[in-house]
Amino acid sequence: MSAPDMRSGIVYRLAVIFCLSFAAGAHAQGPPPEPQVGGTAAQPLPLPSTGLNLSAAQNPFLGGVVAGKATPGIVALSLADAIARGLKQNLGLVLGQQGIESATGSRWGALSGLLPTITARVTPQREILNLEAFGFPVPPGVNPLVGPFNVIDARVAVSQTVFDWSAIQAARAGAETLNAAKMSYKDVRDTVVFTVANLYLQAVTGASQIAAAQAQVTTSQALYDRAVDMKKAGVVPAIEVLRAQVQLQAQQQRVIFFQNEFAKRKLTLARAIGLPLEQQFDLVDTIPYAALRPRSLEDSLEQAWHSRADLQAVEAEVRAAEDAKRAAQGLALPSVHLTADTGYIGQTIASAKGTYTVIGAVRVPLFQGGAVRGRVLQAEAALRQQRAQLEDLRTRVDFEVRTAFLDLKAADDRVQVARGALDLANQQLAQAQDRFGAGVASNIEVVQAQEAVATASDNYISSNYAHNVAKISLARALGVAEADVSHLLGGTR
Fold first, then answer.
1. What residue segments make up the domains of the chain, in order of their start?
2. pTM
3. The 145-163 sheet, strands edge to edge
4. How far is CA 78 from the centre of its chain?
5. Architecture of the domain delimited by 3-114+164-332+368-489
């Protein structure tokens, strides 16, 4: 396989790894919404799409290489710990590392055209020669056969390319391909950080949903007990107790649902960071809402142009394609080569004498049947493809940064609105409880107020998750996810 073909194969494999986690973003949803427990209140807003709900067979970043065995007890897992494990055991990272190894091998293959080759050989022989076969006249009656005799030849041969423009450019292309693989690996690390942080956020969101649902169970239980007492006192009819009991069981169903979802999200997180699935662990960081320091769009775009590793990788691939084109053109140019050998030859080791040979050669291609023209055309096509991909990626970087800014602004506004709505819903519930206790309203008003609180609580949890996802998405768009994600999310212990 030629060096350009090897480079194309490497880039293709890396591109598949990098793009799988993002190409599905428009088709996959975030954590599932809460189960419906009534139709009298507005339904909670959906969590934002993250593109992470693919199976590990489709998205390697959701898989991991398990390291070690489960330990007794419960492990305290912080966001930083999860990211550190992901940067060691995530399957996408492991595959990315192999891409660097493959590119390194390709570079050594390209360098071999410039480096010397040295061989050593020892050839002991026993021969009988026919002098007539080599054109030596033999008088009539004389045996033309000579021997048998021994020949021992011990020799070291060296071959070195003195000048070959094609080999020089191929070596440069190999170096750029390796540089592109390293930049791609850095982009893989950012993707792993984004994926693990997102999965951790989903799990934290699940824990918050459980806590909110359990609070609703507590409230429903208190309202049910009050309804029972009021019925015993003859203040309210039995239907009020029945309504309170239905609401209590509905809230208990929500707790069961969220507990199950939370357990599955923890398993997904464990897979992505290579943690044994049977290992018990607690999430240490709660990651509350924290406003992001304002920054201008222009500064963010400037940072993305300098920090995005995938952009640097494609730029390196363009340079590699340019070198590959020059290497193809160089196949039509003369090249200079030097070969030499030295050693000892004789009938025995003791009688062997030293000899040597030095050969200098200039090779001038005259006609190669269109092979060089074909290689040049292929290299030109590959170069045009790389340049087109680079221009498209620059546009995509601009698009992703602008989109991340829009999402962050909307998510921040959503948190503020959801927080206010939750406060109002709690006030509404308190007033409905007072009205029911005073006998001026039925339990229907309390049930509706409870559902409004549940919806507002879920909307607030969802908006906080969306805000944190928007922050790590901005870090990913800027190419600084690994460096800044922990700082952006913060978290409490």
1. 3-114+164-332+368-489
2. 0.79
3. 117-130, 145-163, 335-346, 353-363
4. 21
5. Up-down Bundle (1.20)
